[in-house]
Amino acid sequence: MNEIYNRYASFRIDNFSQLDEVLAERCQAIGFDGYLLGVTGHGRDINQAVVLTNHPPAWRETYTRLGYINTDPTVAHCLGGLFPLEWQACPITAETAPFWQEASYYGLAHGVSFPLHGVQGEQGILSLSLGRQRQRDYRELMQQRWGELYILRDILLHHCIRLLDEKNKLTATVLSPREIEVCKWFTIGKTTWEISRILNCSEANVNFHFKNIRRKFNVSSRGAAIIKAIASGSLTL
């Protein structure tokens, strides 16, 4: 078990794309076919969740079109529960039967869903699944890799909370109209002197604005500030 902890602790994850790559690799290494990780910040609607998954696009389209998020037993369980839910334990009702039939058709027949709950009110779900012909494989995986699945859940939640916090900080950054102006002129190659002439101000004033922009995004260069401003939505080119 120490080896597993060391492996997971060594992951370098700087964004959700890298987190998706790690999840896909671990899912395959453990032996599952499908995965879905959905997480949202405190007070956010579940429909605003960040979702990482390798589920078939046709299934995701069907899920959205038919509003299955409202009848999906795994979502209901994970929003309110603390313990993992093995799908075979879910009772089949008239309301949930269409959901399970469609899921199985698209290769999500056997699986387990882990609730994700952060100390600041973050919530989400981690689901791992296998196809219809792999029921025996599922039982073996649950017996042999149960401990590792808990570690995977914890490390994913840790990184999700950190990445959501960074995303929220970026989103909260607001640039003034003049700061947006100097950024836009800078992106098309204008120098400090040229920007000062265009905006009819001093070079010191232009430098002052860039200093504030770098401070807001906690970076040391103008280029890095521009990248973060675009990523946060504060700047549109």
Summarize the structure in words.
InterPro entries: Sig_transdc_resp-reg_C-effctor, TF_LuxR_autoind-bd_dom, TF_LuxR_autoind-bd_dom_sf, Tscrpt_reg_LuxR_C, WH-like_DNA-bd_sf. Keywords: Activator, DNA-binding, Transcription, Transcription regulation. GO terms for molecular function: DNA binding. Residues 168-233 form the HTH luxR-type domain. Pfam families: Autoind_bind, GerE. The chain has 237 residues and is an alpha+beta fold. The chain folds into two domains: 1-171, Transcription factor LuxR-like, autoinducer-binding domain (Beta-Lactamase, 2-Layer Sandwich); 177-232, Arc Repressor Mutant, subunit A (Orthogonal Bundle), CATH 1.10.10. 55% of the residues lie in helices and 12% in strands. It is built from eleven helices and five strands; from the N terminus they run ααββααβαββαααααα. It has helices at 2-9, 16-30, 57-65, 73-80, 97-105, 135-144, 146-171, 177-187, 192-199, 203-217, 222-232; strands at residues 34-40, 50-53, 85-86, 110-117, 123-130. A five-stranded antiparallel beta sheet has the order 2-1-5-4-3, with helices on both faces. β4 (110-117) and β5 form a beta hairpin. α9 crosses α10 (203-217). The mean pLDDT is 91.
